[in-house]
Amino acid sequence: METGIDTNLLQAIMDGVISLLELGGPVVVILLIASIFGFALALRKFLQYSKVSNSVLNRLDEAVDFWQLGKQKQAIEILNSSPLPIASDLRFGLEQGASMDSDSLHDEMLRRAGIFLRAYSKDLRLLELTYNLAPVLGLLGTVLGMIEAFRGLAASAGSASESSALAGGIWEALLTTAVGLSIAIVFAVLHALLSTRLETLADRITDIVSRVLTTQENN
């Protein structure tokens, strides 16, 4: 029974998508392709951010705490076991800071932190581009549909089906705007969530790097 229900549901979804493509035309096809690509990209970014949980970042803070307490061995063990590339940069700052002047160490740690964070900000512009372009493409589809509807109206002027043909043409034209706005709303939310995660991560990494620099200045 459940298999039958799932099959019917899948068939209904497929029929709906096909009808949407037929009514919306090439603009809807472009929007759906962009949304599929965008969802895949967003999923990859969420998986990437899942690897920098608070517990993982707290371990980095703990390593700095151990170093400040003079427990260098425990600190290095934590940093070596961390799955984040920034851990090796923090170890560099803690171990090599004594042999570098403070300005050089500061610049080098900021450079390394920037490289680490760049991987998490990568591709967010594509999501932003998706939600910016989706309503514009939808509006373009509506304009093209309205042009087609009025062209058909002019060709069938005076016929009994003139009003219904115009109504049908306008309905199909507005469909692309609805699709574009729907996609834009979803991707605006996804982009906001990922941007918030990036800001939070940047704040945590900046704080940890600052602690490393402070530790070396006090030594």
Topology:
Layout lengths: L1 H23 L1 H25 L3 H15 L3 H10 L4 H11 L5 H20 L2 H32 L6 H57 L1
Question: How would you describe this protein?
Answer:
- The chain has 219 residues and is mainly α.
- The chain has a domain at 54-121 and 205-218.
- Helices cover 88% and strands 0% of the residues.
- It has eight helices and no strands.
- The chain has helices at residues 2-24, 26-50, 54-68, 72-81, 86-96, 102-121, 124-155, 162-218.
- Helix 7 packs antiparallel against helix 8.
- The longest helix has 57 residues, at 162-218.
- The N and C termini lie far apart (71 Å).
Secondary structure tally: strands? 0
Q: What percent of the residues sit in helical stretches (DSSP H or I)? A: over 70%
- Number of helical regions: 8
State the major sheet: none
Work out the radius of gyration: 27 Å
Main structural class: mainly alpha
- Please give the oligomerization state of what you see: single chain
Low-pLDDT runs of 5+ residues are 1-5
Mean pLDDT equals 81
Could you tell me how far the N terminus lies from the C terminus, measured between alpha carbons in angstroms? 71 Å
- What proportion strand? under 5%
Order of helices and strands: HHHHHHHH
What general outline do the C-alpha atoms trace?
elongated
